[in-house]
Structure formats: structure tokens, C-alpha cells
């Protein structure tokens, strides 16, 4: 069962961490005055803000600006770690409402360590204050490497119906015409809605949704790559593997093994710094 609700905005501590074992649920739209760093240590969390939505499997975190309306959904049990940071501690506030990025090894270890300081901690704990201030400084660097793995949100009821229908039928054959009928729109009108409201096409939306759904399934205990491919609408394992690698940079088998082991994603190689020649 989840822990009793905590009024995080009433805490006297400037910054702190909360951990929760969340059963399948959907929160209402809400906001907090502090900046938030959300991390699913186990399972996968869906996160939505006004204009976009993300999936947070293990090893990905979300950096939410204070005051941002958002809601979360878990289709399976998820272990959630959330760090709340006083805005005055953050030297560079999040430029966007939300930025999602891959956790480097240091970030993951710091989040695990921050669990020792909950909202009830002493406000004058100098070690905690120093720790969270250091974390706040590093967040600007980490979040600058944000990923584009997200889905747009609809601005009108009709497009919302088309998106909802698409998301509910990722496992089977699905046509654009079916999505248009579900929305009560002509194909031409639906295509225009996707272009104007979501700045994408229906086919791209479908593809990205299938990849994010695959990440969610592969993050579950006992996940099988072949079954996951079928569950997101692929009839060919080779085609699924190619699409997943192109989308995430990892083969589905490697992604599944890494998540199961709790290992961080390998960092990309650093580019050599070009030195200026002496004048």
C-alpha cells in the first residue's frame, strides 16, 4: 500500500527526498512550489505536463520546474523517488516546464543517498543542506542532455480522442482511418490537427508510442523481447529490434538486461577538445 499522503509544500526543510511504492494509479493534476526531480527506480511512470507526456523507465529522470501542473500514471507497481528542491538553492532554474534525461551513474548514486533525508528532517541540518545544494548545481549539467523521447498532448477533444484510441490499440494492426473515425473527423482534418496541435504526424505518434510502450514492458520483471515485439504491434522481431535501436540507441535485449540489473546506461564517448594554436 502507498504511504500516507505528505503535504510536501508544508515541510520546513528546504529540500528533501520522498520514496513511494506506487500501485497502478493515476494522480490528479497538481503542482508544487519546489522544483522536483522524479526517478522511477523500478517499473515505469507516465508523466504529463500541459503540452507533452513522457515515460520514465529506470535510468531516466524528469526535472520539473516549480509550479508546473503535472500528473502521473503507473500501469504497474513502480518505486518512485522524488527530490524536492527549494528554488533559491538552484543556481539555474529549469528552462522548460519539464526536461527528461538519462541518469549518469553519479546522479543515480546521489538520488539513492538522498533517501536518508525526508520531509521531516531538521531544517538546520548542514550536511543535508550542502548535499542538496550540490545536487542542485549538478542538475543544470545533467538536464542539459535531455532526450526527445516524449509524446505530444492534444489541445482539442477530437485530437485527444484520436490519440487515446491510438494508445489503446498499440498491440494490433491499426490504421489512420480508424483513428480518424474514433475522433469523428475526416482523415484530412485529423492530419491537419496533428500537424497544427502536436507538430507531428499520426504515423510518427504511433511509432514513438509503440517504442515508449516497449520500454515500459521491457522494464517489467520477466519481460521477453519477442513477446514485447508482438505486444507493440510488430510481427517481425528483426523489424522491432531495428526500430527500437534507432529510437533508443540500444537493442531491446540490452535495454532489458541493463534495467533488470539496475546498471546505468553507458555514457557516450567524450569528444576530444580542440586546443587553439598559439598566436
Automatic annotation (TrEMBL):
Q: Name one Pfam family in it.
A: AraC_binding
Q: Show where the HTH araC/xylS-type domain sits.
A: 160-258
Any single GO molecular-function term of the entry would be: DNA-binding transcription factor activity
What is this protein's record name?
Helix-turn-helix, AraC type
Write the record's keywords in alphabetical order, separated by commas. Answer: DNA-binding, Transcription, Transcription regulation
Q: Which SMART domains match?
A: HTH_ARAC
By its UniProt entry, which CDD domains does this protein fall under? Answer: cupin_NimR-like_N
Q: Where is this region: Disordered?
A: 253-279
